[in-house]
Amino acid sequence: TCFYWLKVVADSLPMDTTFQDTTELIPEYYIPTITCGFDTTIPISVLSAGYTPSMATSSDGIVETLFRQEEVLGLQVGDSLALKFVAKDTLDGSHHSDTCFYWLKVVADSLPMDTTLGDTIEISPKYYTPTIECIADTIVSISVLASEFIPPMPLSYDGLVDPLFALSDVFALQVGGRMELSFVAKDTIEGENLSDTCSYWITVVEDEILEPWGTIQCPNDTIIYLSADECEINYNVVLPNCSNNNWTVILDDGLDGAMMRHGDVQSYSFSAIENGEQVATCSYKVMVRDSVTPFFSECSEDLIFSASTDTSRLNILLELPLMDKTCRWDTVFMTISEREEFDDMFESFSIKSDPDWTLLSLLPGEYSVYWQLLHNGNVVDMCESSIAINVRPLGETMVKDNPIHNYLLTPNGDGKNDILFLDGISEYKQNELIVYNQWGSIVYKKSNYDNSWDGTNESSRSFQKGLLPVGTYFFLLLANDKKVYSGFIELLY
User: What is the pTM of this model?
Assistant: First the structure.
């Protein structure tokens, strides 16, 4: 493989393509580049068919011809014409130009062609000159010149190239100095010595005018889409491409190996370092998006509670609707209204799907719960559930309501409701009971529960050891890692 760099600059900042440099050029040293084709031989029949000469090329100037097409078409067998071209450009209001030319020769149809046209047959000395192609005009810094700079030699496919200048004259140049470097290509056919010449200009500038050569290219800004079963990705940074092997690329900003979810954005910035100094920078961004629009896979259960007559408010641990992914961090908007006053909003707020529950404090009554799922600020799914809080006389045992189970616990030693007794617990092998307080902290947890809990706090995270305060607690009974049933425990003494 091979490659080369293409760079684009504003029209007012012409470039020296021989150095692939991105630095701005100053008018004092600038001339536009121009490159002509090889000397060319054509048969008279090609000319008579309306032959158009190949144009010269320029990377930073506008090329015009210095001859007329009528002159070309007026040539006869044996005639030659120097086809001259000029490249023009304007920098900071001043006009700059340079020229080049090549020879066009016309021969009879029966005569062989010049090898520059790709022909390998014998060439007549009458129409032949060796090819020679110089590079574009060149700018070098004074430090490069002082390090025994060797001027690039022209190309010749059929001659021997010699310089027509002394190398010592090149080394003697100072900042701001210019010199035309001329070369000759020589060849011998049938005893005749044949030659042709070309030249280019070399200009010497101060070191600071030329920036270090090379580029650093970061990847484009990237969007990574999560698959249907992915919750997050571990993103490994992609290093930029660097065209100068002497540069060291370092990561200035951004976390390599970042764990990213939907909506996360990570920016990465890099620097290229040479001799301890920053010479180039680049950056790119990575955004993570979900490929599947989220939805509620199951709405919250309808809840039924019994509260004693002396309970002003009941603390309820309300589970959110189930999401299509357990890792969803989208916003769930919940609105609660009393059924008797349907038009009056009782409470309305936004919550995240992690954690998957929220704590409410409600008066006895019947409520409708409206759920909305917001994704990127838009409502993408809705569902509805209900909450009913019924009033019962104080001291009456709470009644089980399927699927929610509610219990009264009064560990006062009177033999009634002194322990949390779960009917049919023996049917669930390898079960686990978890009890939460109103803030969602675990106060009791036991594997293979055996109807023995008496309201004692078994966690030192929130309370001292001993009996828990009077209040309402939430419990979950799990079997084989699945919820068997859940409910509330009203603790009284």
Answer: 0.34
